[in-house]
Amino acid sequence: MKDIRKIAVFTSGGDAPGMNAAIRAVVRNGIANGLSVVGIKKGYQGMIDKDFVDLYSTSVSNIIQRGGTILKTARCEEFHDAEGRRKAYEHLVSNHIDAIVAIGGDGTFTGAHIFMQEYPDISIVGIPGTIDNDLVGTDYTIGFDTAVNTVIDAVDKLRDTAASHDRLFFVEVMGRDSGMIALHSGIAVGAEAILIPETVTYVDQLIRQLERGWLRNKSSCIIIVAEGDDTGGATQIAERVKMKFSNYDTRVSVLGHIQRGGNPSANDRLLATRLGYEAVEALAKGKEGVMVGLEHEKIKYTPFALAIKDKAKLNLNLVKIAEILAM
Ligand code: F6P
Questions:
Q1: Which of 57, 102, 131, 265 could form a disulfide with 146 if both were Cys (CB 3.0 to 4.6 A apart)?
Q2: What is the Cβ-side half-sphere exposure of residue 239, based on CA atoms within 13 angstroms?
Q3: pLDDT of 204 above 80
């Protein structure tokens, strides 16, 4: 087993509420295990730029409740090149870093997987931090619960104005490749329809559903659209629907990056704390090249290549429930 004395932690990709809670847990459990802990700023970019900062117990005081990430984050083009990764490796070695805890999503773990194949002397363990909840090997990713609650809060408000004006709202939520936020928030707000990338959207079928609602005197509607839906998003589908069925006064609301901000929910703080703690335990046990997740209340280690492989995590039973209850 490798002798690990100094670990680094970073956040990468889109930020997610709860990342700070995970950093805190990594730092404090690292120290409890007798390790030195370094933070890398802006994910892989900070490795290349040698942007390292020593972290102590007090460095992570008063952050468990804060959204965003104190270590900052980025999507790093340079790390896609072997030359960028070589620079990153040299900086890690010159800083005597033996292992890394990487907090992020599929892009982060793709990078970690390649890096570990090229430089196996540096162990990497991952923590799922993304609002998208699109990783295999964990029931939930850090940030998803908060993001869904942010959407619910916004859509409840849109319902008020939709009902007052008798309007049809297309609400676009995040999820380039994943309908998780759309499906969970859509069910929770009682949306009339939920359009997600994992299923084909039949526009004529949607229009027929709206027509039926109109005939039943349904005066307002909310349709949740994942940004990666095959129709191209809320603006595009709204235009197509309006052309064929113009009875409703239609509006589009794109919620955007507001979904990534805010104080993490209780669930996200707990999940982040548990996974942060367990990531350090995993390194201490000699684990590497895996994402630490929580499935059915049990800690699970999933190799990076598997965690990012399968996008078909969406519960199709939830899709069915949403369709039946929206009628
Ligand atoms: O992966 C998280 C996520 O918020 C996606 O849901 C979204 O498609 C994307 O990031 C947006 O990325 P950016 O912040 O680069 O616009």
A1: 265
A2: 5
A3: yes
Q: What is the pLDDT of residues 88-135, one digit of tens each?
A: 999 999 999 999 999 999 999 999 999 999 999 999 999 999 999 999
pTM over 0.85: yes
Residue having the nearest C-alpha atom to atom 13 of ligand 1: 14
Q: Which atom of ligand 1 is nearest to the CA of 227?
A: 8
Same fold yes or no, 6-143+264-309 and 145-260: yes
CATH (one of 3.40.50.460, 3.40.50.720, 3.40.91.80, 3.20.20.510) for 145-260: 3.40.50.460
Q: Which residues line ligand 1 (CB under 6 A)?
A: 14, 105, 130-132, 174-176, 227, 260
Q: Which atom of ligand 1 is nearest to the CA of 175?
A: 6
Nearest CA to ligand 1 atom 6: 175
Separation of CA 285 and ligand 1 centre (Å): 33
Kindly list the domain boundaries of the chain, sorted by start residue.
6-143+264-309, 145-260
CATH architecture group of domain 6-143+264-309: 3-Layer(aba) Sandwich (3.40)
pLDDT interval class at 310 (50, 70, 90): low
